Amino acid sequence: MKQIANVLPAERLTRPANCETHGSYISTNIFGTVWTHCPTCESERLAKEKLEREEFKRKQLFEEFHRKVGDSGIPERFRSRRFSNFVASTDQQKYVLEFCKEYAESFDQVLETGRSAIFVGAPGTGKTHLACAIGMHVMGAYHRTALFSTVMRAVRRVKSSWSRNSLETETQAIEAMVFPDLLILDEVGVQFGSDSEKMILFDVINERYENRRPTLLMSNLSQDEVVAYVGERIIDRMREDGGKVIAFTWDSHRRVK
Ligand SMILES: Nc1ncnc2c1ncn2[C@@H]1O[C@H](COP(=O)(O)OP(=O)(O)O)[C@@H](O)[C@H]1O
Ligand SMILES: [Mg+2]
Ligand SMILES: [Zn+2]
Known about the structure:
Number of strands: 8
Shape: elongated
Oligomer: single chain
Structural class: alpha/beta
Number of helices: 11
Radius of gyration: 29 Å
CATH class of the largest domain: Alpha Beta
Strand order of the largest sheet: 5-6-7-4-8
Mean pLDDT: 89
Bound molecules: adenosine-5'-diphosphate, magnesium ion, zinc ion
CATH superfamily of the largest domain: P-loop containing nucleotide triphosphate hydrolases
Low-confidence stretches: none
Helix content: 40-55%
Number of domains: 2
């Protein structure tokens, strides 16, 4: 019977070798005429490859982020809006800013419960600013998707799917608003709010609710008016998952400046 020791070489051959950069080293025979290279060169090559892989990954994430921001519908003007450039001087402003930060920073938990929020307050109080800041954070830090749309644009999209030569079906139009991890619906109640508009809004929010996906609604209406506009059914669903109405009670930032 053949002994294992006879099959495997007991000891590898070695020989002194020289690297032009790192000087002398001991080279080990791998098999036949193949010998190991300079260990310092080898580890430098591995380190360089690791760096290149990391750089590639970073570039991918960066490009992905930019593509996402481009697809997000966040208006150009609001892409620079962050928590850090929101001026909070009063206690109420600080509370609202903290709420938004906490919401964005615990977005993984928000996704588990589908916790939504409604921002109400006068024009110019920073509702769109903070909603966009949340959207940007969620896309940047969490690699999640966010979609920003005014109610008018969302409704128009669904309505145009009804036309015979539309490129997308109604289901696809609604699905596009249900799919993103975060949906930001701005300017709720700016228009009159026809029945079909309310139905569309309900469909979108309801589908998101069923899928436990959070939605942020923004409105210049008062809290009561928003509830009346959106309907108790939707408000109830939002509240059920811990959703809150956040009141922006101060004067317009445009007037303060
Ligand atoms: N507290 C604030 N600090 C810094 N900029 C603000 C603040 N509030 C509002 N702004 C800025 O004022 C403008 C109007 O705010 P916006 O978010 O559009 O208000 P709203 O959506 O409530 O009407 C935006 O350019 C926004 O970035
Ligand atoms: Mg706004
Ligand atoms: Zn070397």
